[in-house]
Amino acid sequence: MKMSVKEVADLVGISVRTLHYYDEIGLLTPEETTPSGYRLYSDDNLETLQQILFFKELGFPLKQIKEIISSPSFNRLEALQQHRKMLLEKRSRIDRMINTIDKTIQHMKGEIQMTNKEKFEGFDFSHNPYEQEARERWGDEAVDNMTAKINNLSTEEREAMSKTANAIYNKLAALRHGSPESEEAQAAIKEWYDFLNENFGHYSLEAFKGLGQMYVDDERFTETIDQFGDGLAKFMRDAMAIYADNDQN
């Protein structure tokens, strides 16, 4: 029995607008559209939607998902097996990070002592879920150079990079209730600009400003950054835009 767009939205827990958008971009076309314009989804449509949401959960952009599932060589069973493998890896990393958080809480309470290495267990810079977007925005060469540089880092160097990034995030989070134009905010955002250029290749001011907008436009970025403080992604977006505009003037 075919389902209406509202029935599918209620079943899956996504918005009707999302389903309309998937149809508009050719990612998920309902099996039937009635003369009155109502979209009707089949069981096969639902299986395709499940695949789309698995890919989305793993950080794939919609453009790439469309290319994958539209390919003649696409095999649904193989994709599910790969999804399972990737999700198990993700769960393992999250479990390690939760364990690190629990130990950090105990450390702060004085119940245990943590080594510097233990403080960064679970963080992984070897996989970048935003790589496809980066390739589309800044080209393959820049991303390949950045990836090669990260892969050549030792464990200690990656830990140091993570520690530096977290310190800058925390500094900005402490300033987020003030003005992004303030001297303190601009000094901190310059640290972020310098950090990105030192570790991930050259960022032009225009690219830096665009990255800040991406922090707000892409919910994955927003969710990650706002872990350091609600509203931090928007504050960084504004501070990055101000920094870029002032340096170009």
UniProtKB/TrEMBL annotation:
Gene3D superfamilies: 1.10.1660.10, Antibiotic binding domain of TipA-like multidrug resistance regulators. It comes from the Bacteria. The keyword Transcription applies. InterPro entries: DNA-bd_dom_put_sf, MerR-type_HTH_dom, MerR_fam, TipA-like_antibiotic-bd, TipAS_dom. One of its GO terms (molecular function) is DNA binding. Pfam families: MerR_1, TipAS. Residues 2-71 form the HTH merR-type domain. Keywords: Activator, DNA-binding, Transcription, Transcription regulation. The keyword Cell cycle does not apply. PANTHER family: HTH-TYPE TRANSCRIPTIONAL ACTIVATOR MTA, REDOX-CYCLING DRUG-SENSING TRANSCRIPTIONAL ACTIVATOR SOXR. This is DNA-binding transcriptional MerR regulator. It comes from Caldalkalibacillus uzonensis. The lineage of its organism: Bacteria, Bacillati, Bacillota, Bacilli, Bacillales.
